[in-house]
Amino acid sequence: MTNPKDFVAGVDSDQRRSPTRVVFVTRRTSAQVKVTHEDQIQTYPDVLFRVVLAVELLAIVLVAFSLLFNAPLEGIADPSHTPNPAKAPWYFLGLQELLHYFPPVVAGVLVPTLLIVSLVIIPYFNINIEADGVFLHHRQQRVRIAYLISGGLIVFLMIFKVYVAVVPTLIVALALVVAANSNPGPPHNFAHYLAARPLAWWVMTWFLFELIVLTAVGTFFRGPGWSWVLPWRS
User: Fold this and answer.
1) What is the model's pLDDT at position 22?
2) What is the pTM of this model?
3) C-alpha pair distances (Å), 225 with each of 40, 74, 197, 209, 219
């Protein structure tokens, strides 16, 4: 070796000050690195700040509502008299509306499970790794697939006479048509905005749209025997 390194044994606890030494750490010192600057600093994530702010605002709104309005509670339950219709809490009325059309296993187990699994898996598809628009690549092939799935879903709902779920599906399908014939552009252009949405966004939008419609129908448009009634009629 032309330039051998000179390693000197010593007792120290600062590796930066003695980079070429073999340091023996004794019981009276500690193996640590004393520096004046840090490569990493503690910070408060911006997203976490927004989440905390949203939670606090929601808590304030809920407390204000609870102070200003009474909860719409009914009378004390009477075991000898079952109300007609017997409705579940509002957050389950969407599933109860599906039970009107499908068997319990389908409406209560199969449909929710498939929706949740699809919302978990779809973001990891190759089509969605970079969260690009659905129709930005392989447009013709994906347009045909979208039309086939939308048409099959609408026919399926029509066969089982789930007309309340057909309307949201038609609206989402029309938005898909608009997105398929547009390109991503300025955010103020709604058609361009739709074209830039990924697959997971479309599935989640359809799911939320269906949930809102089914919950609203079960809440306001179902009367005795789960018959169709208008909310402004007694």
Assistant:
1) 58
2) 0.65
3) 64, 19, 41, 26, 14
